[in-house]
Amino acid sequence: MKKQFNRMKQLANQTVGRQVLNTLSIERRMELVRVVSHNTHKKMVSCLQGHIGADAEKRHKKLPLTSLSQAMVEGGNQLGEDSLIGKMMEVCGEAENRLASELMLHELQIEKDVLDPLSQLAEVEIPNILKQRKQLAKLVLDYDSARARWLQATKSIISGTNTQALTAKADLLKEEVDEAMNKVELCKVTKENRFFFYRILLDAQADYHRKSLTVLESVLPTIQAQQDSWMEKPAFGMALDDHLKRSGREIALPMEACVMMLLETGMKEEGLFRIAAGASKLKKLKAALDCSTSQLEEFYSDPHAVAGALKSYLRELPEPLMTYQLYDEWIQASSVSDPDKRLQALWLVCDKLPKSNKNNLRYLVKFLAKLALESEVNKMTPSNIAIVLGPNLLWAKTEGSLAEMAAATSVHVVSIVEPIIQHADWFFPEGMFWFSSAAVFNPTSLPLFVVITPVVLEGLVVRTADTSQQGGGRREARVGDMYWKRGIKAKSICSVE
């Protein structure tokens, strides 16, 4: 009873550790830290894509990125290397596998450096701290008791007679006090300096994302190179020279394909280029031409869709076929009042066109001239053709809506395009035979048209003798003074004449 009374008295008069023992909020704080750590650990585990505790190989196999990688590689192998999609899937599959490896290493690091210490804190260390707190309270009381006895012994030495015995007792009590104090301090040591795993988490995530970005940046140039080197590229909206260079053609594929289909089924169709086609079929045909497919049989029965696709191709060129650079010269030439001089001026401008533009314009104009020959049936005279198709061949390089630009240039364009169609053989004396549309998608087998060099006859000059120079010579012939070189046998091809 007396011992318990002394202990209660100690609790009332204790000195060392009073703040620790008297603060009930410490236990609440530690419990809160434990709960927060437990919840954080739980949510962090749910963020992992691999199975926690599994070895590296098993974890890698179970990752969704690994499954995606395998599916893409298998799909690429099935499609083959002759397919752009197949090549891209194979490259992307390899990249996804590398990303999966980086993710696996990242999650292993997170598990080792963050999850395990966090779990240790919540489940082991904080409960141990709470237990040590109780031990600390007992040690503090023991220290206070030993110190009180030591002080009492020290006082006895001063006032007592048996100094040697009292001094020895005081020394023993002093050792007991020091030992008790050491135990108190050991028990009070904090472990907060060990709990840096939240910083480790952010550092690990930053490192993972940097490595993932490196993987992606190393793959993107390969993907881009494959796209750039692939022959089958969209033609609509692409610059004419780029399309011709990449496809290895002289005439743009959409133009050639549409012309060939119209030559076979659309020359007598009334209102060709004037009557709008169905939007869905037109969209489908443009998509087919964009991917260079030769499966166009379903469109032969709808010449208006084919004509609409040709108009769309011309309109969607980044630069008009007759070029921005020569726009002012075209307009100026069309303003000449004298008909013969106007033709001469138009021819001079036409002769300034870049080679690829001139070749494609010649191809188109030759076709339109043939179409105009059937005007009694199809109602498409050179004037009507120029009205509906001219604004797609030449427009101003100015800001504004399509309607505004068309209104501003339509009158001039008609006066430019109409005479070129009317006198196609004079503007482009090279004759032409047309092959069937089956050859359009196989440009390496046969040329799609044959250019026939005109005969230069003395007295009926269609071009000055020096035609080898850039731009050719001056035109002096009257309209219609044209002679063709015969002698090309074309039993297997279809002549436009």
UniProtKB/TrEMBL annotation:
Every BAR domain range: 8-232
Domain of life according to the entry: Eukaryota
Topological type in the membrane: Peripheral membrane protein
One GO cellular component term noted in the UniProt record for this chain: cytosol
Signal peptide feature range: none
Pfam families: BAR, RhoGAP
A molecular function (GO) term: SH3 domain binding
Subcellular localization(s) per the UniProt record: Cell junction, Tight junction; Cytoplasm; Membrane
Domain Rho-GAP stretches: 238-428
InterPro entries from the UniProt entry: AH/BAR_dom_sf (IPR027267), BAR_dom (IPR004148), RHG17/44/SH3BP1-like (IPR047165), Rho_GTPase_activation_prot (IPR008936), RhoGAP_dom (IPR000198)
Keyword annotations: Cell junction, Cytoplasm, GTPase activation, Membrane, Phosphoprotein, SH3-binding, Tight junction
An example Gene Ontology biological process: signal transduction
Subunit structure: Component of a complex whose core is composed of ARHGAP17, AMOT, PALS1, PATJ and PARD3/PAR3. Interacts with NHERF1, FNBP1, TRIP10, CAPZA (CAPZA1, CAPZA2 or CAPZA3), CAPZB, CD2AP and SH3KBP1/CIN85.
Physiological role: Rho GTPase-activating protein involved in the maintenance of tight junction by regulating the activity of CDC42, thereby playing a central role in apical polarity of epithelial cells. Specifically acts as a GTPase activator for the CDC42 GTPase by converting it to an inactive GDP-bound state. The complex formed with AMOT acts by regulating the uptake of polarity proteins at tight junctions, possibly by deciding whether tight junction transmembrane proteins are recycled back to the plasma membrane or sent elsewhere.
PANTHER family named among the record's database cross-references: 3BP-1 RELATED RHOGAP, RHO GTPASE-ACTIVATING PROTEIN 17
Protein known as: Rho GTPase-activating protein 17
Origin species: Nothobranchius furzeri
Originating gene: arhgap17a
